[in-house]
Amino acid sequence: MKTSNNRAFVINVADNVATALSDLRPGECVLVGDAVHESAQVRGDIRSGHKFALVDLKVGDAIIKYGVAIGYASVAIECGIWVHLHNVQSQFDERSGTLDGETGAPTEGNVYV
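That's the Altronate dehydratase sequence above. Prediction below.
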């Protein structure tokens, strides 16, 4: 088994995203859990608890975590890239694609009451 400070968890073998177990830096990341592969390449800084793509995703592709679709790619997402509000439309909260990617706050003109 490979070792690295970059480690991420894959919950289900069908998942196309992994969750960072610590703050990740670009480079090889060891995958633990139900991963198909032993490792993946991270292509940017990813904070602990956040997701990154394990495959290239096209606009409209389902984001699979826990073995189920949790959202859809709102833009093309390359393998190893951070997956979050800025590039995903949530299946559970349709306004999520309009929220600020850093804070999660509604953006101007997109306040819901």
